[in-house]
Specification:
The chain has 554 residues and is an alpha+beta fold. Helix 12 packs across helix 13.
């Protein structure tokens, strides 16, 4: 009858609608999968962070074998980035393809340099890097790939000034490594302090925030790692550690290795430190990088993690997801619905710990090449202040300094330099007394030891440098490369119209012997370019050194 026919027709219509809906859902899923695949094909860069100390240190021949191996394998697999290679090990930040990075890691695990060992229990061969922890981040955009591969020959893989006889043995004195979950629990315990062994400008934009009643945070307020041993020797530092268990952390873990070993060595060998009754020394295994992977929502972390790759800084993964959602939907729309992404409130992406040095607005992104005119650390300047300076609306003068210089009331380079020299002299005198005949002067870079000064019969102290990397060279890198020569002034040569640095500079050094040391660097490769150096007498008609070209560190 008519009713039965109508019912059958309705059922058929429902089936067709269901089939159409299923087809639409399948097409949407396919489109999403295609879109994701396309995104992955674009974001196909893998970042590798790792370090490894070797004990005992490589001798000269072993070091050269290791340097050649890591460089050759890096070129073979198309890697780019930075390798700090020392007789004490490797510290690397590298980028490459997914497979290229993993193939390089696999090759390094097989490298023994003639020093492999046999496991007494299993009988298996153990190589230097068999247990190295490689920290990988996949699916990064191509713009975060380093342009070239640079292998730097250095004395220390972290520049603490603790090379040679100064270096505490990590195997003997190193702190107890805690995985992120165990470290997180330790931060909640009383009678505990946490030492952030990074530089202050890193801690300024992000750090751990233990709960009330838990551990107490300590920021040593350092501008560079060489200040840590000096800070650790201060009486006020020792009082902060009295009767406490000590936790340490850094970006990837490498800075904690020597830092924790130095403290434990002092506990065992120095009476004044032993008497503090320190209850244990611990460090975060894998650093902040691994903690973020274990606690993607942030855990006890607040703010951004400063990094030395092309990400510059980043938040925990789920907090970054919130930030991306806000950019897609808009701030107002997210606020209306009190948006929650992966269980994280939208407000989590608004936690900015730093402040612009120019206008004091909340800011946590280090961009551009500007550095504090007083001490030389990276400047935290907001986009608006950068633009005003660039277009001449409001220039960033020498009074715009980092928050550490403001806090310490450091107003000029000479004031800071005199303080650093005084503290270093006191520290070196203490080291001489402790080490006696084993004392060795502080050394910074391998070429600083092997570079033989050139003759300088006219006693010239002004030099001309050219063919430097215009994009990467700055005061800090140039001073590090030219060490131990004492550079007092740098005049960066720039384009008259654009103001852009084009790779050349005049420098003034303290003595004629320093000039000979700098000239010995002629033809050396710095940041991928072969630098030219020559003596250059100042023109009698010109003012030299040029006012305002003083450097922050001798």
């Amino acid at each position: 009858d008519l009713k039965t026919l109508q019912l059958a027709k309705n059922q058929e219509d429902e089936k067709q609608k269901a089939a159409a809906a299923a087809a639409e859902a399948k097409a949407a899923a396919a489109a999403e999968e295609k879109e994701q695949s396309a995104a992955n094909s674009v974001n196909n860069i893998t970042l590798l962070l790792f370090y490894q100390y070797v004990e005992p240190c490589w001798d000269d021949d072993q070091f050269q074998v290791a340097l050649k191996f890591v460089t050759d394998q890096g070129n073979k697999y198309g890697l780019t980035g930075r390798m700090r290679v020392a007789k004490e090990g490797l510290n690397c930040t590298l980028t490459g393809s997914h497979d290229g990075i993993r193939n390089w890691c696999a090759a390094l695990r097989t490298f023994d340099g003639g020093r492999s060992k046999i496991d007494q229990v299993t009988g298996e061969t153990i190589t230097e890097f068999a247990k190295t922890e490689f920290k990988l981040t996949d699916d990064l955009p191509p713009k975060q790939r380093f342009p070239k591969l640079h292998a730097f020959e250095v004395v220390e893989i972290v520049n603490y000034g603790l090379a040679g006889s100064r270096a505490p043995e990590i195997a003997k004195y190193g702190g107890t490594h805690l995985e992120p979950e165990d470290y997180n629990n330790k931060m909640c315990e009383k009678d505990t302090v946490i030492i952030d062994v990074r530089n202050h400008y890193e801690a300024n934009i992000g750090r751990f925030n233990p709960p009330e009643g838990g551990a107490k945070m300590i920021d040593p307020m350092m501008r560079k790692s060489t200040e840590f041993p000096i800070w650790l020797d201060k009486p006020e530092t020792k009082e902060m550690l009295r009767g406490k268990q000590v936790l340490m952390y850094c970006t990837g873990g490498v800075r904690c290795e020597r830092a924790s070993a130095l403290l434990k060595q002092k506990i065992e060998t120095e009476d004044d430190t032993k008497s503090l009754g320190i209850k244990g020394v611990y460090q975060l295994q894998g650093g902040i990088d691994k903690y973020f992977k274990q606690f993607p929502e942030g855990g006890l972390w607040k703010g951004k993690n400063y990094v030395f790759d092309k990400r510059f800084s980043h938040a925990p993964p789920k907090v970054e997801a919130v930030d991306r959602t806000k950019k897609v939907l808009g701030e107002d729309e997210v606020a209306k619905v009190e948006q929650v992404v992966d269980g994280i409130p939208a407000s989590a992406a608004d936690e900015i710990l730093g402040a612009c040095e120019g206008c004091s607005k909340p800011w946590d992104m280090y961009r551009g090449k500007r550095r504090c005119p007083t001490c030389g650390v990276p400047s935290l300047i907001c986009r608006e202040c950068f633009d005003k300076d660039k277009f001449g609306v409001k220039k960033l003068g020498r009074d715009v300094r980092c928050d550490l210089c403001i806090t310490e009331d450091v107003r000029n380079k000479q004031q800071l330099r005199e303080r650093e020299e005084r503290e270093m002299k006191e520290y070196e005198n203490n080291i001489k007394q402790k080490l006696g005949e084993k004392y060795e002067p502080y050394m910074q870079r391998k070429h600083a030891i092997t570079r033989k000064p050139k003759a300088n019969p006219e006693r010239i102290t002004r030099l001309f440098l050219k063919n430097m990397c215009a994009k990467q060279m700055d005061e800090e890198k140039l001073l590090e490369f030219l060490h131990p020569a004492k550079v007092t002034h740098i005049q960066w040569l720039t384009d008259r119209n654009t103001g852009a640095f084009y790779g050349s500079a005049f420098i003034e050094v303290k003595t004629a012997e320093d000039a000979g040391s700098v000239l010995a660097a002629n033809g050396m490769t710095v940041l991928g370019r072969r630098m030219t150096v020559k003596y250059q007498k100042p023109d009698e008609k010109s003012i030299w050194p040029v006012p305002g070209t003083e450097v922050g560190v001798e």
